[in-house]
Amino acid sequence: MVNVRRTQRLWLVVLMLVSIVTAGRANAALTASVDRTTVAKNDIVQLTIRSDTGPIEHTDFTALEQNFNVINRQRSNQISIINGQKTAIYDLRLTLFPINAGRFTIPAFKSRGESSQPIEITVADNATETSQQHEEVFLKTLISKPEVYVQEPLVLTVQLFHSVGLRDAQLTSLDVENAVIDEIGDQEKSEKILNGVRYSVIEKHYSITPEKSGQLTIPALTFSGRTQYRGVYADPGRYVRTRSMAHRIEVLAKPDIYPANAPWLPTSALSISDSWDGNPPTLTVGESVTRTLTLSALNLNAAQLPDLSLPTVPGLKLYPDQSRNENTATKSGMLGQRIFSTAIVATQPGDIKIPEQTIYWWNTSSKKLEQTIIPAVTLNSKAATNSAHQNLAPVTPEALERQTQQSVNNHLDSNTTQTAVNRTGSSLWPYLALLFALLWLATLALWWRLARATKINSKAFLSEPPSTQLNTTRAAFKAFKKACHNNAAADARHSLIDWFKCTHPQQQISGLQSVSEHYKNAELDTLIRDMEHSLYAEGAHSWQGKALLDCVEALEKTHWATAQKRE
């Protein structure tokens, strides 16, 4: 009987121990929770994984990252002792950003032998830039037009609205395939009131120039950062992330009716202004006047505008200055301007006519071929003075020597005659001698002044500081080399023309045709045509710039080697 009672007591103790261990295990758990189960595509989700047995370790997030980007991780521990009993809570907080819209499952997680429960979450695809306007931070993008021609720039405006302070701000870079991207102007700041809320607005403008016809996609941009409330310095801030809408642009090909030899100029408006030092221009032989032509085009980059060098005209010496390019953001879009200044020196008197010039361009609004004409100009060239013109017509050292000798001979003949015929006229001799001496000195002074003026004009119009010219040439070829390495046909085209202008300043450059005519190389002609085809032909292939770079470098080495042998 005693043995039976001992056995019963033993079993009772065992059962009590088992129940205590089981109760302890039941309280030890790994849990997972989210701040909301229904979110929009541009919203973020806060996921909290909690354990009371120890820090969360060796957790696999591979399945989670298939549908969510984990953009932030934070750990926290909380330990408390109540009535001598110690409790601990270990949290792992994840900030999630949905990749796509739909219904997804946040999987179960395992740590220290414990497992959490999966969570169902719905991501709604109803987030638009308009619906975000009730948020503290949102991103908005605007395009100047939904349809453009190849090589016609469009303007993308990026606006960041925020009603709270921001820190750790980051905006993804703009990257568009088959297009050249340039920033326009500086970043702008303003304020707007939307739905009764005052927002600070940060605005940036980009010029996007398509290089191929077809569909062009401008991807969504993403902004991320932390809120910062005024007066609260210890608060780490709430993590925010917002995304703009993507845009799809239809890129039209160059029309077949456009002149083949004319530069391709797709624009909604093109104008030319013509200004002179004098109006109407009147020239004096040996003196210079400056003519300035300003070519302006709406929604066209200044680098795409053609050269407006004046044609060679008998009776005129032309000294063109380096053209200036200016791009300006306006309410109607980007305004590209190219400014050409040319010093003109008349070499003979009379009426001299500069012929008219015609510029073809494609009106992107009416979708028609148009032309703008620079009217012909007739210049009235006059001699400095009648006597000066007669004396300066043969202004050379030999002519001056002959004129001086003639004056001396005339003087001697006159003196002999006066002595033989009438000695009473000898009283005039001092005055005649003085008169001839003054005439000779005046002729010498006029010759010296004209020679000096010609030398100064030549230096002013033809020369440029060697260091400046060398730096400009190197920069232009560096840009051409970079464009070829990046296989950017449009940039390579512009930089090749700029470099050729720097290395051949005495030539009238009309475009790539001038480069071909200078080198007279069949391989170069083929490579240039291939680059042009990749830019403007519909359904053109992707362009590779290495062959063109190698060809130009080889031709230039041969050119300089030949020039050194001649010297």
Give a structural overview.
The chain contains nine helices and 30 strands. With 567 residues, the protein is α+β, with helices and mostly antiparallel strands. The protein folds into five domains: 96 residues, Immunoglobulin-like (Sandwich), CATH 2.60.40; 122 residues, Immunoglobulin-like (Sandwich); 117 residues, Immunoglobulin-like (Sandwich); 70 residues; 101 residues, no CATH class. Strand 28 and strand 29 form a beta hairpin. Helix 3 packs antiparallel against helix 4 and helix 5 runs antiparallel to helix 6. The protein starts with a helix and ends with a helix. About 13% of the residues have low confidence.
The average pLDDT score comes to 76
What is the helix fraction of residues, given as a range? 25-40%
Poorly predicted runs: 17-27, 386-427, 450-470
For the record, what CATH class of the largest domain applies? Mainly Beta
**Number of helical elements:** 9
- Biggest β-sheet description: 5 strands, antiparallel
Oligomer: single chain
**Can you tell me the number of structural domains?**
5
Q: What sort of overall outline do the alpha carbons produce when their principal axes are compared?
A: elongated
- The chain-level structural class is alpha+beta
Number of strands: 30
- The Rg value, from CA coordinates, equals 41 Å
Fraction in beta strands = 35-45%
CATH structural fold name of the largest domain: Immunoglobulin-like
State the end-to-end CA separation.
Answer: 131 Å
Mind telling me which CATH architecture of the largest domain this is? Sandwich
